[in-house]
Amino acid sequence: MGKAGNDLYVIQSDVTGVIKVGRTGNVERRLHQLQTGSPYKLRVILHLPGGAHRELPIHRRLEGFGLKIKAKGEWFHYDALIHLPDDLYEQFDLDVIDSWWRRK
Question: Which of 41, 50, 63, 102 could form a disulfide with 14 if both were Cys (CB 3.0 to 4.6 A apart)?
């Protein structure tokens, strides 16, 4: 676990596939907070300790592609994954991610 607000995370919904990119000091606590307000099962698909400084540039990058879901804050369409920086995108096992949410 990193320092307060120092980690970057990507969380995904199992029904819609949407992703949330954010920063936190405790990923499990943040997942629990988000899960409380979500009717769908959520899970962490990326945790990057010390990566919080990348949050804003990533949000700008995804918004530039028109992928931001405005009504829900920092949630993005599943297709936004491909627009993440290469070093982050390469950390995803897309077969596992796709089988988790696209099974429905």
Answer: 41
* Structural domain for 69, as ranges: 7-90
In a domain, 71, yes or no: yes
Q: How far apart are CA 104 and CA 87, in angstroms?
A: 29
Distance separating alpha carbons of residues 14 and 1, to the nearest angstrom? 25
- How does pLDDT run along the chain (104 residues), one tens digit per residue? 445 689 999 999 998 888 999 999 999 999 999 999 889 999 999 999 999 999 999 998 988 665 566 556 678 888 889 999 999 999 998 888 888 887 65
| Domain count across the chain | 1
